[in-house]
C-alpha cells in the first residue's frame, strides 16, 4: 500500500492540480450555455454568490477532511464516523461511474483537435459531422482509448511526478489560450443576409447584462438550481476528488489561501469561457446557436469557426487544444481518486493498481463509445429527458449521487460530527479561518436545505411532489 508520503510539492502544486480538476469540460460548454439560457448577467451574479458561499463550504469540507484524515473518501468518512462509511462508498462510486465516459468525451475533443490541425475544419462544420462521428463503430473508440491511455500513464507516474508536473504545465497554457480566444471573440463582426450587423462586443454585453424579462419565482428557482448544479461540475466537490487531493497537501500549507485560489482560478476560467464562446456564437448565429451540451461545442462552434474564414481554423485549433487540457486534467483527477481509494482498500501499490484500473476503464470506455452505434438504445430518465449509455452514467453520477452526497455530508459535518472538525484543520498551523462564521451557518442550516431541494429537482421528484 502506498502511504501518504506522496504529496504535492507545495501550495502552488496543489492549487494548480485542484484547479485542473475543477476546470473541466463543464466550464467550456455547460457554463456558457447556462449563462445564455438563464438571463446572462443574472445567472453570473447568482453563480458568483453561490461560489463564495455554497461552493466555498463544500470545497473547504472536502479538502480539510482529506488533509485531516490523510485518506481518500472511503477511509476518510469511516475515520470521521464508522457508521458513516457508507457515505465514503457512495462518494467513491461517483468517480467510478464518471470514469466510464469522461475519456470518451476527451476522445471526441481530441478528434476535433486533429481535424483542425490537419486542415479539415470545413468538414467539422457540416450538419451531420458530429452525429456521423459518434455513431461510427471505430473512430470514437480509438480516440477514447487514446485519451484513456494518456490519462492512466500520467496517474501511473504519481502525484508529484505525474499529476502535479502535468498540471503546472497545462493550467497556465490553458489560461493563456482562453484569454487569447476571448479577446479575439470580442473583436468579431459579421453582417447577415438581411444586412444586420452583430459584433462581439454586443455578444459580450448580452452575456454580462442581467435579463429579467419573464422572471417569476419559479423561473428564479430554476436559475438558482442550475447555478447550484454547475458548482458540482465546476469545483469537483462531492465526488471524493478533493478529499483525495486534500490528503496529499502538506501540513504547513495554508488551506484558507488554497481554497480561495482554487475558487478564483476555476470561476475565472468559467467566466472567460463565456467571453470566449458567447460573443463568437452571437456574432455568427445569434442566440439560436447556443444549444445545450455537446451541440454547443461540437456543432455550433465549428460552424462559427467556419464562418470566421481562414482565421477560424487557427481559433479552432487553439480552442480544442485548450479543451483537451481542461478535460485531461479533470480526467486525471477522476482516475486518481479511484486509484487512491483502491490502494487503501486492497493494500496495493500505485503502479499495479493503475495498470489494473487502466485495463478496466479501457474496456469501459470502448463500451460507452459504442453506445451511439453497436450498443445504442434509448430510454427516458426520471427527469423526462431521453438518454443513451453515456447519458445514463452522467445522470446517475451528477444528478442523483452528487446532490445526495452533498446533502449527507452537510448533515454529517454540521450535526453528527461538528463544524469544528473542519474548522480546526483550516486553522492548523496558526492560520486564521477567515470565513469561519459563514461556514458554520452554511454547513448546518442553509446547505442541507438547498442540497435537498437540488436533489429533488435534479431527480425529477420535485415536480412530482408539486404536480
Describe this structure in words.
With 467 residues, this protein is mainly α. It has one domain (11-465): Amino acid/polyamine transporter I. Helices cover 75% and strands 2% of the residues. The strands form two sheets. A two-stranded antiparallel ribbon has the order 1-2. It has a two-stranded antiparallel ribbon with strand order 3-4. Helix 1 (11-22) crosses helix 9, helix 1 packs parallel to helix 13 (255-285) and helix 13 (255-285) crosses helix 14 (294-307). The longest helix is centred in the C-terminal third of the chain and has 37 residues, at 310-346. This is Sodium-dependent transporter. Its main location: membrane. The chain crosses the membrane at residues 12-29, 41-65, 86-109, 129-156, 168-187, 227-248, 269-287, 307-335, 355-375, 395-416, 437-457. InterPro entries: Na/ntran_symport, SNS_sf, YocR/YhdH-like.
Number of strand elements = 4
Classified by CATH, the class is Mainly Alpha
> What is the mean pLDDT?
91
Query: In whole angstroms, how far apart are the ends?
Result: 52 Å
How would you write the strand order of the largest sheet?
Answer: 1-2
Number of domains: 1
Could you name the ranges where pLDDT drops below 50 across 5 or more consecutive residues? none
Strand content: under 5%
Gross morphology: globular
Assign a percent range to the helix content: over 70%
CATH architecture term: Up-down Bundle
How much is the radius of gyration in Å? Answer: 21 Å
**The biggest beta sheet, please?**
2 strands, antiparallel
The CATH topology is Amino acid/polyamine transporter I
Organism: Hominenteromicrobium mulieris
Keywords: Membrane, Transmembrane, Transmembrane helix, Transport
Membrane topology: Multi-pass membrane protein
Subcellular location: Membrane
Amino acid at each position: 500500500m502506498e502511504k501518504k508520503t506522496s504529496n504535492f510539492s507545495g501550495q502552488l502544486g496543489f492549487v494548480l492540480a485542484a484547479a485542473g480538476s475543477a476546470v473541466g469540460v463543464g466550464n467550456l460548454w455547460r457554463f456558457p450555455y447556462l449563462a445564455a439560457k438563464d438571463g446572462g448577467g443574472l445567472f453570473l451574479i447568482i453563480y458568483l454568490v453561490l461560489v463564495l458561499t455554497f461552493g466555498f463550504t463544500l470545497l473547504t469540507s472536502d479538502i480539510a477532511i482529506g488533509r485531516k484524515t490523510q485518506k481518500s473518501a472511503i477511509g476518510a468518512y469511516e475515520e470521521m464516523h464508522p457508521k458513516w462509511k457508507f457515505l465514503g462508498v457512495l462518494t467513491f462510486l461517483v468517480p467510478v461511474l464518471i470514469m466510464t465516459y469522461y475519456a470518451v468525451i476527451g476522445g471526441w475533443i481530441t478528434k476535433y483537435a486533429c481535424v483542425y490541425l490537419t486542415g479539415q475544419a470545413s468538414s467539422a462544420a457540416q450538419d451531420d459531422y458530429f452525429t456521423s462521428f459518434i455513431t461510427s463503430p471505430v473512430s470514437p473508440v480509438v480516440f477514447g482509448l487514446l485519451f484513456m491511455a494518456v490519462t492512466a500513464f500520467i496517474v501511473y507516474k504519481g502525484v508529484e511526478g505525474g499529476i502535479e508536473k502535468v498540471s503546472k504545465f497545462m493550467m497556465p497554457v490553458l489560461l493563456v489560450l482562453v484569454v487569447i480566444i476571448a479577446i479575439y471573440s470580442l473583436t468579431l463582426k459579421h453582417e447577415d443576409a438581411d444586412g444586420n450587423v452583430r459584433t462581439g462586443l454586443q455578444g459580450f454585453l448580452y452575456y454580462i447584462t442581467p435579463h429579467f424579462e419573464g422572471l417569476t419565482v419559479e423561473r428564479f428557482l430554476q436559475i438558482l438550481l442550475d447555478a447550484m448544479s454547475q458548482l458540482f461540475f465546476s469545483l469537483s466537490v462531492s465526488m471524493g476528488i478533493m478529499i483525495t487531493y486534500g490528503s496529499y497537501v502538506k501540513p504547513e500549507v495554508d488551506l484558507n489561501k488554497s481554497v480561495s485560489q482554487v475558487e478564483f482560478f476555476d470561476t475565472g476560467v468559467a467566466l472567460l469561457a463565456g467571453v470566449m464562446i458567447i460573443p463568437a456564437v452571437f456574432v455568427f448565429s445569434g442566440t439560436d446557436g447556443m444549444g445545450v451540451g455537446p451541440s454547443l461545442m461540437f456543432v455550433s462552434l465549428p460552424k462559427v469557426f467556419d464562418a470566421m474564414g481562414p482565421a477560424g481554423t487557427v481559433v479552432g485549433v487553439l480552442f480544442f487544444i485548450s479543451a483537451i487540457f481542461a478535460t485531461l486534467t479533470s480526467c486525471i483527477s477522476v482516475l486518481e481518486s479511484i486509484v487512491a481509494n483502491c490502494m487503501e482498500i486492497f493494500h496495493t501499490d500505485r503502479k499495479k493498481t493503475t495498470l489494473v484500473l487502466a485495463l478496466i476503464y479501457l474496456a469501459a470506455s470502448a463500451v460507452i463509445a459504442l453506445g451511439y452505434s453497436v450498443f445504442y438504445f434509448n430510454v427516458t430518465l426520471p427527469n423526462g429527458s431521453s438518454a443513451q449509455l453515456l447519458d445514463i452514467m452522467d445522470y446517475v453520477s451528477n444528478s442523483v449521487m452528487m446532490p445526495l452526497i452533498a446533502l449527507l455530508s452537510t448533515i454529517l459535518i454540521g450535526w453528527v460530527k461538528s463544524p469544528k472538525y473542519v474548522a480546526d484543520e483550516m486553522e492548523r498551523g496558526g492560520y486564521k479561518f477567515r470565513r469561519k462564521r459563514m461556514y458554520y451557518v452554511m454547513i448546518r442550516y442553509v446547505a442541507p436545505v438547498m442540497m435537498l431541494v437540488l436533489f429533488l429537482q435534479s431527480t425529477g421528484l420535485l415536480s412530482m411532489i408539486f404536480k
